[in-house]
Write a structure and sequence with these properties.
Distance between the termini: 32 Å
Structural class: alpha+beta
Radius of gyration: 14 Å
Number of helices: 4
Length: 134
């Protein structure tokens, strides 16, 4: 992504935990603990999309929405990794830039949307708007 002018920095420990908590509180706070347990949210947060708990776009529609989204500054979070990446000047990133990644959650700095690429070829990718689709 350096060839696209993206500036990458890594967030660790407290900062990474804070970003993870922000994702949870923005995209999954309205889901009950019982539902989270039932869909194995603790294993893969993206199950809220694959189990259709949250409305989202899937597959090519998700890719197209991500490609069209405003992306100046992004967070990139991995399932079960202790760090989060911060991408600046990321406006030219596209979904295919992340095709080799697994269980990755990408979202804008304002947490208005999230794009998820899973390790399962038949699940996702997913694109969800925090305010829902109209």
């Amino acid at each position: 992504m350096k060839d696209k002018g993206v500036i990458l920095s890594e967030l660790f420990e407290k900062e990474a935990r804070t970003v993870n908590e922000l994702w949870d509180s923005t995209f999954a706070s309205d889901i009950s603990m019982d539902t989270k347990k039932a869909v194995y949210y603790d294993q893969f947060k993206w199950h809220i999309f694959s189990y259709q708990i949250k409305n989202c776009l899937k597959e090519e529609a998700a890719r197209n929405a991500f490609d069209a989204a405003a992306k100046d500054e992004l967070y990139v979070m991995y399932q079960n990794k202790p760090y989060v990446l911060m991408l600046k000047n990321a406006k030219d990133t596209v979904s295919t830039d992340f095709d080799s990644e697994e269980d990755i959650y990408i979202f804008d700095k304002d947490l208005t949307w999230t794009y998820v690429h899973t390790h399962e070829s038949y699940c996702g990718p997913y694109f969800h708007l925090a305010g829902g689709f109209k």
